[in-house]
Amino acid sequence: MKSKIKSIICLILAVVMVASLSACAGASVSASINDEGEFVYTVTRSIGATPEAETGAKDIRAALKKTFDCKINIKKDVGYEDFDGNYEILVGDTLREESKIAKQKLLDNRVNCASDFIVCVIDDKICIQVVNNVMITKACEWFMLNFCNSKEDWSKLRKNYEFIYAEETAALNNTVAGVNLCDFTVVLPRKTSLLHGLIVDEYIEYYDQHDYILKEAEDMDAEAEYEILVGDCDRDASKSVTVEGDNYVIKVVGKKLVIKGGTHLATWRGFKALLDEIKACEGKEVGINWADGYVVNGKYDANEKGAFTLNWGDEFEGSTIDRSKWGDYNGKSLETAASCLGGTVYTVSVGGKSKYTGSDAKDLIHQTGGELVCGTKRISDIDFIGSQISSYYTMTFKYGCMDIYSKLAKEPAYTTYWANGGGTANPEFIKRFGGTENDRVCMTEIDILENYSRPHEYGSTVHWWWSAFNADGSKNSAGGHAGLGGNALYKKGSENSMYLVYDQEKYGDLLPDDYHMYSFYWDDECIKFAFDGKVFMDYQYTNHESVSVHCLMNYLISSCSMGSATYGYTYSKDQHENYYEHKIDYIRLYQTDAKNSQMITAWPETQKNGTSVVRYPENSIGSRY
Question: Which of 57, 424, 446, 528 could lock 419 by a disulfide, CB 3.0 to 4.6 Å apart?
Fold first, then answer.
């Protein structure tokens, strides 16, 4: 989906072109008014019309009504059956065959037609059609400017008239197996790293800038004839290519282009190599031209300028938790909340800190079988205990791409992942991570996953918090926070929704039934959230004026609990079990020197003193904003 609408620079020239083209197009289309005082043409759009098409149809109706001073009907394409002599102005995709014919004319005109539109007359229909929905606004504006301002303008619209607006964009002439790469579907594994989703999005955006609309799919979708297979795809061509370690391979296998590395980083570098090659061919009459069997071999190099590197994470191997990475969350394990059964919900940290001192807290968080297990229990008739881990005392960072491969706890338990920047006035935190500037007046909370106990969806969002001050410089209670939740741009059902709704019909299970990749990307322009490697929500800072707050460093927290009076499903003794658990296979945080990234690691919480290590020491530390 294109993220922008290109301006029509040559609009005045296009008006001249209309005059020249219409002269040989035949008799004018009808401009009559029937016995009921209605204009003969009905403005028709699809019952599932996009907001742009809906607005365009209404604007055309209003313009015609002003010009002809009569009733102009506007209808949906399923409101009545089509018939001979049914004069219609079809806006965008409709069920009418003429809409399909018009779109095909546009597609046949040239391959990079994402910013193009067509206005044509086919029998008793006037078609206004695009291949990219966002261009329908410009198409309708052009139609009204040329044909709706006066009866004389309308008379210029002739039978068999056809006009195609084609944006001046250079074609990309890259072929694989004898076919232009724009005709290849990009296929990602059902579950993969966000690194792959990011580089594929960059590739698609590059083609988008040249007015191509590329197709994307997962490897469990129906197989297309021509495909770019990224990573370990469930396709025979992908399985036929083996690669290990930091090596990557780009290989043409029949009608497939396989890009595969021995690691997620190597696969990312392999796809970047393809994109770099394509960019190097821009403007050339002939770009890449690879036949069956063509191979490119390469290697991921962590020292390469601009490369992502794995800077922090945990594979959770061995039988003990790595206390140099995980600890308490600023004393939060000593806080309690009311339970839905009238009791208390306790929290326990990695080190066993909790207001609850019973034996049920023992080993609630443990490491086994290459996984970290975080459990939650009902510990009495009315009381519960949950678990929490954090890098609060050990690692804080700014910018990067994080993958969390895990299996969520089943309902009524809930799982959370978030990056936070609060509580930095703590003297212990300041000692570990660098000075009094950590006593912030604002901070960002990045909610990677808020599960709410729902097995079919979860939410991802951003909150910014701030403090208010008295005249003497002391803080007062007027501070607060705001988030994306009240913004219609991110509401459920929107194209950029902050909710990931799991496709149960497609996948046949629920979120907690299996492991999935929960990811986010963060830099100086945006925060993106992804599921199984594919971005589903993109928060650009330009949509909010408080940009600098998102430059502050954060630490990571995860929790698993149940029985809350205000959060998640209400616990039922008759329906639910006494114990649930959340499992993390690995967490990986990748960063790049291409951004103003930052990371500071410190000594374990259990250690009184130690040495902090600043990664990217040449970059400005986020806490100083």
Answer: 446
